[in-house]
Specification:
It contains eight helices and six strands. The chain is of the alpha/beta class.
């Protein structure tokens, strides 16, 4: 199983003023694969808080995959890519490119997403857009390769790829 933590980045969500519908889309996609949710948090659009949570999850060795949602756009408070870049050790640009390309097919505005994908220690970190449709489409574009990516990062075959039945 791919141990997955989800971080929603949203000022209004952290203040309890908005329901987190993006996480619902993410969970729906993950439920049919070899993923198990081990943690979920909501933080405001504060770069230091985003950075700290990603670092904590990656450094605990209990999370294989961190999915963030929100904070990837062009607004002044959108700082998720900057926080992610501060903690990852290696970028995986092909996955970020694939997410944007997939999104642009249905919405040209997907090209404005600045989300990153990278590795810290033995954890893959993926920035998804904050809108439910953007999060869903971006994750759909890469979800089938995530188990193999995690296996490769860990340097072992845990049969996560074979557990994927779609």
């Amino acid at each position: 199983m791919v141990r997955t933590a989800i971080l929603t980045v949203s000022d209004r969500g952290a203040a309890g003023q908005r329901e987190d519908t993006s996480v619902q889309e993410i969970r729906r996609l993950l439920q049919s694969g070899p993923f198990v949710e081990v943690d979920y948090q909501v933080v405001p659009d504060e770069q230091a808080m985003i950075r700290a949570k990603i670092r904590l999850w990656c450094d605990q060795d209990t999370v294989d995959l961190v999915l963030t949602t929100g904070g990837t756009g062009l607004a002044m408070r959108d700082r998720t890519p900057e926080a992610t870049r501060e903690v990852i050790e290696r970028e995986v640009p092909g996955l970020a490119e694939l997410m944007r390309a997939h999104g642009v097919a249905s919405n040209p505005l997907a090209a404005l997403s600045r989300g990153l994908v990278g590795v810290r220690r033995k954890t893959l970190v993926v920035n998804l857009p904050g809108s439910p449709a953007g999060a869903r489409e971006s994750l759909e574009a890469i979800v089938k390769v995530l188990p193999h990516a995690v296996d490769t990062i860990l340097g072992e075959q845990r049969s996560a790829s074979e557990a994927w039945h779609n």
